[in-house]
Amino acid sequence: MTQLIMAYILMDIEIGRADEVLQELRKIEEATKISVTTGEYDIIILLEVPTLEDLYDITVKRIHMIPGIKETTTAVVEKIITT
Amino acid sequence: MSSRNQRPVGKRSATSVFYLLAIGSGVMRTASVSFDIVALNTMISDSIAFGFMAQWLALGVTVVLIAFLSIPRKHNGRKRPIGYSLDPDFGRFRLLPRRPMKYLIAGGLLAGGSTFFYYLLAGQTDASTILPYGQLVIIYLLLGDLLAEKDIPTIIEVQCIVSITLGVLLVGVTPGGFDIPSLLIVLGPMNIFSAMYTYLQRRAKRMEIRPGLRVDSLNMRLWTLLFMNISMSLMMLPLMTPATWTLMLQTFMPLFWVLLGSALATFLAMVMYVRALGSGSMAVVNSFASVSVVLGIPVTLLGNLILPGAFGAITSDVFLWALKLFGVTLVVVGVLALQAADVRSIVLVNVNPRAGSVLGALFDVKGVETAAALAGKHDYLLRVKGRSLTKTRSAVLKKIQKVPGVVSVRTLIVLADYR
Fold first, then answer.
1. Is residue A52 less than 8 Å (CB to CB) from chain B?
2. Distance from CA of B155 to the nearest CA of A (A)
3. Which of the listed residues B16, B165, B206, B295 has the most CB atoms within 10 Å of its CB?
4. What is the DSSP string of B362-384?
5. What is the predicted pLDDT for the residue at B75?
6. How far apart are CA B101 and CA A22, in angstroms?
7. Domain enclosing residue A19, as ranges
8. Residues in chain A within 8 Å Cβ distance of B16
9. What pLDDT is recorded for position A57?
10. pTM for this structure?
11. Residue of B nearest to A41 (CA)
12. Alpha-carbon B411 to chain mean position
């Protein structure tokens, strides 16, 4: 099995729509972690995809289509260490 | 056997799943202990014979259950085994890879030791004064967590765990003293074996078979039980006489349903326990699971209404009840405080362009669970676990700022986590 590409998508959500957006994001199977946060961003998700092409598809065709998301910042993970 | 990236995010937040599992394990343990007590009080007095039958029947039940849970079922257009809802890492009945298997063999052999002592003591008349001390295993686990660098318990955790442990001991009080040899058996081999067993189970559960797929708790239970039974039986055999065997033959049929109930409850208890171990520290999981002692009170009271005497004697001493009530309060307060004090945050770090890689240095900060180097606006993303915001700030953020090259740190507090 090839190594998966991981990417964090940091999102800015319109006021009052966080819950709606959360429900939609949950349907994306490639999203392995979803965190609702306070501060600069409102929701941060971790995607695990086989190729960059898939990452493009998910961000452009799925996430950007969800009403309520104001802005997204995609950060591709270059290296990760975890417990 | 779907890896993380092939399954959707769960409906409940990660923290609630963790606490539900830990407490659920305690509830199921109450059920299985009640079955044992009923059997020992009404049908069979030889606890060694009972333990021998109970454990081997449990293995049979587990094999059948896992075979049943392996049956695939259609769910939203994709095939999944029935056992998926018990543990998403579960695929089907299988042998595990060599390394987790080694942990399970070692853990199983040790657990066999503590189970042997459990049944040995359960047969004594004053067992109820001694066995609550088995809960002191939490202290051993706390020390274990302290020694494991990455999982340092905070003062709040220590407070809550002490409160829960003392509460559990108070709940278990009975009139009369205890004899020192039995107490030593509980505090010595029984607790040490079960602490080591917990540690090994945790190591095995956290191992990845392939990226995103961890060892599943159902198969873990099966293989652990096999080795546990072998080591337990080896210790029991010298104590068993031909009379024990005839007794087992005579009582097996009438006991069958009780044994079955106990085996099913234990299976669920252990699966939940191991899954909780996969995502939390050992001492916390164990202290939550020890709520079983508190639940034992209503179960004993209600049970005795249905089958008088089967659930053990109830004291009418008001003073003892007051102590028990204090115990319950301590346990509940500890559990609630621990659950309320769970703060996770995500920290975004930017470094100056000539800093080189600081990923290792960032990950080495205690409390950092995951560190990722990113391409894009931010340079690093850290997932930080703390018991309070002050703790996160003082212990974690200050150290992150001290890492050479770090120019900006932005902290986002996680309100809910789903995985």
1. no
2. 22
3. B165
4. HHTSTTEEEEEEEESS-SEEEEE
5. 74
6. 38
7. 5-76
8. none
9. 92
10. 0.81
11. B412
12. 32
